[in-house]
Amino acid sequence: MATDAKTEKRALRAEIRQRRRSHGELQLSEHAEHLSHHLRELVVAHGATRISCYLSGEFEPSTRPFLSWASDAGITVLLPVTREDGLLDWVVSDGESEHPHELGFPEAIGELLGPIALGDADLLIVPAASIDLEGYRMGWGRGYYDRTLGSMADRPPVFAVVFDDELVGAVPREVHDERVDGVVTPSGITRF
């Protein structure tokens, strides 16, 4: 069963990567504007002053306009930094310091706060490849967020960010897969 889910996930991730690469610049720009609007709504609705987010890569739903707004609004944003042990450290965003990670995604640079820094966040915004209608998140296969979310006893609300066509009826699941509380797409916010 687990092998089947792994195989299905691998195929689905490849399909999603291909679809994401086919989005045009105008479409990506419009999506980024809509996503930023919905993410701002989410932060305001939760009264969040300290959040976690991520630096979006070239073909991901863009968090960049939202991160700029959060910085201007005085919201503390924690950005992830990968560790060799599969966990995530966190740094406070300064809006500028990043480098390309060897796996191809942008990663923040700054003073490492350790995994426990996430415990003080009011809202977690996480990347995903796909989300299903029960709130199960399919990531990119490295397990960073599943381990992080699974280790939190009293976690704040968690919302994933995907394109509209990546919110689907069901995603392949394994035992370690974590649910999220909602999803933000260019067309809106869905709560589970």
From TrEMBL:
Substrate binds at residues 55, 60. It comes from the Bacteria. GO terms for molecular function: 5-formyltetrahydrofolate cyclo-ligase activity; ATP binding; metal ion binding. Keywords: ATP-binding, Ligase, Magnesium, Metal-binding, Nucleotide-binding. InterPro entries: FTHF_cligase, FTHF_cligase-like_sf, NagB/RpiA_transferase-like. One of its GO terms (biological process) is tetrahydrofolate interconversion. ATP binds at residues 9-13, 137-145. Signal peptide: none annotated. Its EC number is 6.3.3.2. NCBIfam families: MTHFS_bact. PANTHER family: 5-FORMYLTETRAHYDROFOLATE CYCLO-LIGASE, ATPASE INHIBITOR/5-FORMYLTETRAHYDROFOLATE CYCLO-LIGASE. This is 5-formyltetrahydrofolate cyclo-ligase.
